[in-house]
Amino acid sequence: MKALIKQPGLAPKMTEVLVPAENVIIKVLTVGICRTDSRVVDGTIPVEKPTVLGHEFCGIAQNGKYAGQRVAVDPLINGLFMGVDIDGALSEFTAVPEENVFPVGNNLADEEAAYLEPIAASMAVTKSSATKEMVGGIFGVGRIAELTKLILQTEGYNIEYLQPGIQYDYVIETGPADLTPAVEALRPKGLLIIKSRGRTATIPLGTMVAKELRAEAVAYAPYPEAVKWLEANASLLRPFIGETFPFNSAMLAFETAKTTESVKTFIRVGQRDT
Ligand SMILES: [Zn+2]
């Protein structure tokens, strides 16, 4: 089968590899590109061995209790991330343990189903000690900031982009490397919620200490909750869905993803059997 493989220090290359033989085998339909994937492609996040790219996807389970169903996947497998630490989804078939597999409703387009992982990541804020009664602010702009705001609003949270002159009970950082404006917008004893990965950031410790602020880092909401949100709110995702490229134009898809941050770019790997 064909797979798009990143080798340490080299550009990704379409390579012929063996179909995986263990775990739940998934025939890959559509793969979404996120910042993590782009960083692996350009080498900012290094791979240690030749690794199949991609981690946001849907496909058809070929075996196990969901055989024949369309599924999306939690790409964090025993602490290892697909497309970074272990083989990912940009191949005709991929394989994951059954507990990482989630059937998704037929009402969803493949691109919407492939959105499960970023939704679980944005929804992770619901695990923090921020409550719906608190006044929350989002720090950052772009697709992840917008998606986080959308998901929290549909869940009933009082959340907006940071506005001047308001003291927030909590602020969620979604990307910028200097967190000073986020820390300054918090009320005394307020809560800084951290969700970005794969980079370092500047935090003004003096202000943190003077205001006795707290910080919490969150990674993912439980995937069944993210599936429920996706099935109920898929139509709200339309503004976040960009172009879909065929598998043999995967590198063009990565190029496009760089210049269209506000929408997600997808790669169509396989078709449903009819
Ligand atoms: Zn992702």
Q: How is this structure best described in words?
A:
The structure is a single chain. This protein has 274 residues and is of the alpha/beta class. The protein has 2 domains: 2-120 and 222-268, Quinone Oxidoreductase, Chain A, domain 1 (Alpha-Beta Complex); 129-217, Rossmann fold (3-Layer(aba) Sandwich), CATH 3.40.50.720. Helices cover 23% and strands 29% of the residues. It is built from 8 helices and 17 strands. The strands form 4 sheets. Strands 3, 5, 6, 9, 10, 16 and 17 form a 7-stranded mixed beta sheet that branches. Strands 12-11-13-14-15 form a 5-stranded parallel beta sheet. A 3-stranded antiparallel beta sheet has the order 2-1-4, with no helix packed on it. A hairpin with an 8-residue loop joins strand 5 and strand 6 (70-73). Helix 3 (116-123) crosses helix 4 and helix 3 (116-123) crosses helix 7. The longest helix has 12 residues, at 143-154. It is globular and about 60 Å long. 43% of the residues are buried. The chain binds zinc ion. The site of zinc ion has 6 residues, from helix 3.
